[in-house]
Design a protein that fits this description.
129 residues
Length: 129
Amino acid sequence: MTEARARLDFLTVTYPRLFPVGPLAWGFEHGDGWTELIATLCERLNTILEADSDARFGVRQVKEKFGALRFYYELKQARDDTVRLIRQAVDLAETASASVCESCGRPSQMRRDDGWYTTRCELCYPNPA
């Protein structure tokens, strides 16, 4: 297990309010390069949720799809401002992922190769995550 993967797995312990049922069923389904992006997103979501004690939140799945991050979650009993702030934070992270190498975290660009979308830097392309 890489240090980045261990850090991702530890997010479920660091932010129990985001991961109320513990580790994700399939883990984090993407390369290690997005670790910092996801850790920052989790920190931001936790801060938003601290201001809304009634909100119930749960991360359902975190993966790569069409070359970008997909962060699926469930949110209940939240105030309108909480819903808006969480959606903005997730949208920002998903958009940012299209310019961060999924393998190593360096600046990158999304590419299409043989019908598959991927976000890899010059050093990692075309190698897998």
